[in-house]
Amino acid sequence: MTNNEQHTPLLSVDHLVTEFSAKGNKSITVVDDVSFTVNPGEIVAIVGESGSGKSITSQSIMGLLKSGGSITNGSIHYQGSNILTLSKKERRQLRGKEMSMIFQEPMSSLNPMLRIKSQIAEALRINQPSKSKRETMDNAIDLLKQVEIPDAEAVANRFPHQLSGGMRQRVMIAIALAGDPKLLIADEPTTALDVTTQAQILALIKDLNKRNGTGVIFITHDLSVVADIADRVLVMYAGKIVESATVYDLFEHPQHPYTIGLMKAMPTLDSQVEELEPISGNAPNLANKPEGCAFYPRCPFATEACLTAVPELRTLEKGHDVRCIHPVKEGVLHEK
Amino acid sequence: MKSDPKNVLLKVAGLKKHFPVQKKGNKKEQQVVKAVDGVSFHVRAGETLGIVGESGSGKSTVAKLIMQLLQPTEGEVVFQDKDIFNQTKKQRKQTQKRIQMVFQDPYASLNPRMTAKQIVTEPLRIHEKMSKEDLDKRALELLEEVGLGKHHLNRYPHQFSGGQRQRLSIARAIALKPNLIVCDEAVSALDVSIQAQILNLLKQLQKNYGIAFIFIAHGLPAVKHISDRIAIMYAGQIVEIADRDVLFTNPKHPYTKALLDAVPPSNPRHRKEKTLVKGEPPSLMSPTRGCPFVSRCPNATEGCHTNAPELLEHEVNHHYACHHPVQAPNNLENIGGRNS
Amino acid sequence: MKHKISFSKQLKNIGSRILELSTPLGMIGLITVSIIVILAIIAPWVVPHDPFSMDATKRLTPPFWMDGGSSTYILGTDHVGRDLLSRLIYGSRVSLLVGLLSVLIAGIIGLFLGLLSGYFGGSWIDQSIMRVVDAMLAIPTLLLVLVAIVVFEPGLVTLILVIGLTSWAQYTRLVRGEVLSVKEREFVQSAKTLGASNTHIISKHILPNVLSSFIVVATIGIATAIMTESSLSFLGLGVQPPDITWGSMLNDGRNYIATSWWIATFPGLAITVTVLAITFLGDWLRDILDPKLKKGGDDDDE
Q1: pTM of the entire structure?
Q2: Which of A257, C18, C230, C292 is 20 to 30 A from B340, alpha carbon to alpha carbon?
């Protein structure tokens, strides 16, 4: 269970709506009424497939939406104050110092022309401009050691292309940690990495979270990564949170048919099934979402009611919310 | 599963592919990247051989060699008793009919300027003389075979989703009723729910037509799901090859075990303190005398640095290349994701 | 058969894209170019006066809105009393003819050699073609054209041939680069695994995918050719009188620029407007010919 609910959470997102403008004065709602909190020292995973809005949620929080995208409703509170009302400059000052982000492709996030140490030093200087050059360099090496880069002094003098994918992601994490942020947003940080490297990076993020008490939002499409790292999980589908629970609750008692479908569709090492049970069909086009529940065209349990009624996110028990008219718990699920 | 020599469809023996690279500022010193360095295995008719490896392990180069997109430096690939690198143009075309490939990226592997119909009938237009009516009929059959329909015939690739595009690639691959399909990371780029659809489709096609698959991937769970036998590649070599269940319950090579350990659990209850393998694969340019895994191996001894182990059949159908194989196979706690 | 179907399909596709993707600049380009082309074709029937007939009494008449201007000569007359508007309309014929035909010649050579060079990238064929291209590109086109004009008789045909034969190198280089990248794309690899022949791969997979960037550059090449033609005619090395071109009109007006500015200004404007319009058109073609064109704005997680 999550700790200290009476305290102000580190981050609290309430009824966030992010839209992108489209042709003909239309707009597409990519993030639809998303609410969640992140407490200090907690790892919250957002899991979903392409087009679920998970990445846009994180970009909304960081204030890094691409052109055409804007937050049209809701609020984002960081340590109790609404950051959406801040000026651009104040927003920028939050990044790095208070919250920072790592991405899927570390190569494109690093400047190919600069040595690793300069890139880390740059991030350090933004936060502590008063330090001497010597001190900054020492700190940079310390950071590299902190992310368990062997032979940190040598690596500091290299260029990004001289490093492997796993090493680059470590460097990215070091840069993200330069401002000693309280919130780290990781957007599919291990998707482009090999299995053994992925395990190393996941262990590193977990370790940093434990050691420094950094709150982490971990965005992924991979349920097994969620199982490995998360404290709490939000499952997103077509821009909405369809289920939110602690990681144990979610895996033991999944309530939303989509969550269940994902689990059945995922091949695992310990399953013995010959046939996977895929979710039929494709994710809906966000510009043209079905009325009623967005998942009903693919849902094996859908009834007449799902066609028209838009399900609300409701709390089934403390800490377990689901956006479904027929959650498993209520025992009305009968597969057609 | 007995190895029946008559049943062998494809035999790869001592296959090597070295790419020359020029070192900066030093034109004389020719170095080579040993992308594939002595790989041998076979595929039986109608079975699925999984090839697992991380980036740089050489698994995709093996696929390209089998597809004759590259010429090997050494070694041979024997398909239906004929060496594919040593045949006349006519024989070659026949072989190309019998082996097909499905690529990883469904966005890159289809010509954006062709319709679905043109895409799936292209193999027929190249190899068979068919009338327009027959082609149309066959196009529809193929699309239906992979779960697409008549209304998809005249669409262009960008009008399909990723999963549907991969279905198109598969329809195209089965058009000539091949004996072998090489799938290079065929589901890696797809969403989880779509991945399962494609894996099931491949299994279905195998059941219906007895097609053999070489299924190349870096994701162990998907490979485990679809394969009969699995080969593990590391730094251009096969380090272990065994029947699927044997490999997952009784991995012998320390690298296989490391890979299994690295797979995240399928349930948070199975989280564990893992002993992670350190470091990263060796550079393929440096000449290796010993075992390629020596720098990361927990079992390595002096001998491993100088003496490369050979891939040998230590148990029936279980080959591995290691001087100090993993002991105590039944300690289930230590095997990735298998905790009760 | 099949070809026709897919071609008409493609035409229909392009038609709907034109409507869907109309941009202000693209539309300006398309409309302006269309007007110029139509005027050039129907010139003999629309010109208000005979563009060749001189009338010393009407010489140096200013445009109609100026003192001494007349509504018969809307844009005024030149130093020998010929109607400027009529001459401008006739001049577009030569400019467009030179532009289109020279780019056609250069394009065909460039496309062919580029495909060859790119597809067999790294081979001796590629090496030798590229060395010739390097040599061609090292010499300024205008200089090459000047030499050629001096050697051969100046005139329309010479001009077209000379511009065409001296400007193919840039197309070769462009097409080669495109082919080199398209060749590595997976769908070409995929066709190779099928056992497709080289001709099949080039015609079905590579050519269709390099054609759109080629068309865009060729369009802009037309504008460049028009400029070259004008420059040469201005220097008196291009089309010879009595044939009318904007370049030679510009030359005619050179001596009168201080007193009768309109003689040089209107042909100058015509060149500028045409070249700009063609460039807009080219930029816009790049968009509508892209098969994977994003509709924009709706990209979420990749």
Answers
A1: 0.81
A2: A257
